[in-house]
Task: structure prediction
Amino acid sequence: MVFLIGFMGSGKTTVGAALARRLGTRFIDLDALIELAAGCSIAEIFDHQGEPAFRELEHLELRNLLAKPRNKAYVVALGGGAFAQPRNLELIEQAGAAVAWLDAPPEVLLERCRQHPTARPLARDPDAFLRLWRERIPFYERARLRVDATLPVADVIEQILAQLKESQRR
Result:
C-alpha cells in the first residue's frame, strides 16, 4: 500500500492514477470517497458544513478504507490536509504503508490550483494558502519518501518506484 501526500496542487490524483496503472493495482482517491459518501463536492462540504465537518468525514472514510479486508496492494491519494491530522497519521502509521510526499514550491502549487479555482476552496486567498502550506510542511516531512512533484508525471513515478525499492532494502 502506498499513500501519496502533499499540498493541494501537488498532483496526488494524477500521479496516483498513473502509479497504480504502472503497478497493475487499484487507485483510490480519498477525496472521491468523501464526495461519494457525502453526496456533494468537497467545496460544497466546506461551504455548507465547514472544515471540521469535512475533516470528520475524511477521517471516517480513511478509517473505513483501512478497515476493509482487501488486497493491500493499492495506491491511495490523500487530500492535502489529511496527513496533517494526527488521528489520520496514526491510522496510516498503524497500517504500515509507504508514504510518499509529492513536494513542490508553493508558487507552483498555487498556480496549479488557480487553474481549478472552484474545486480548491482553500486556495482562494494566496496569503492564507501560503500560511497553510507552511503549517503542513512539518507533517509532510514525516513521510519516508519525498519526490520532486515539479517534474513530469513519468519522472515522479520513477522517483517513487526507486525510493520504494531502496526503502525495501533497508
